[in-house]
């Protein structure tokens, strides 16, 4: 009985440690980035939804390579952002400009300026799938 209890305690400790490592890695990658979810709605197409978020970038911050299982439509609200898009190279957008990223295309975003920058991101995704998939 005591052995089983020790095993359970050790297993919980190990799982907690790995959870802390994983959460630390994700938050470190997003340093200087603040995401505010604005809305999420089912679409008239069964099985799909739209998710909209505002992403704020501190000066000289970046969000590493990632993709989305659905389309992403970006509108730069403030400042200037540089996007590295697989197959298209580097694209720099300023406030008022837009970008469409097809499903599954790997991309990254960076604010190379001394000022804050923000984008409005709208995702069209299949329900139940994650909005974001980080790449190594």
TrEMBL record:
Residues 1-28 form the signal peptide. Pfam families: Cupin_2. Residues 59-118 form the Cupin type-2 domain. Gene3D superfamilies: Jelly Rolls. InterPro entries: Cupin_2, RmlC-like_jellyroll, RmlC_Cupin_sf. CDD domains: cupin_BLL4011-like. Keywords: Signal. This is Cupin domain protein.
């Amino acid at each position: 009985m005591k052995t089983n209890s020790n095993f359970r305690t050790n297993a919980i400790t190990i799982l907690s440690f790995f959870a802390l490592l994983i959460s630390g890695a994700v938050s470190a990658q997003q340093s200087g980035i603040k995401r505010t979810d604005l809305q999420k709605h089912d679409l008239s197409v069964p099985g799909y939804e739209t998710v909209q978020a505002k992403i704020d970038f501190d000066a000289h911050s970046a969000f590493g390579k990632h993709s989305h299982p659905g389309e992403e439509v970006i509108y730069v609200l403030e400042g200037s952002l540089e996007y590295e898009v697989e197959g298209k190279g580097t694209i720099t957008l300023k406030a008022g400009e837009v970008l469409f990223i097809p499903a599954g295309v790997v991309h990254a975003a960076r604010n190379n300026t001394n000022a804050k920058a923000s984008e409005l991101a709208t995702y069209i995704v299949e329900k139940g799938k994650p909005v974001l998939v980080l790449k190594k």
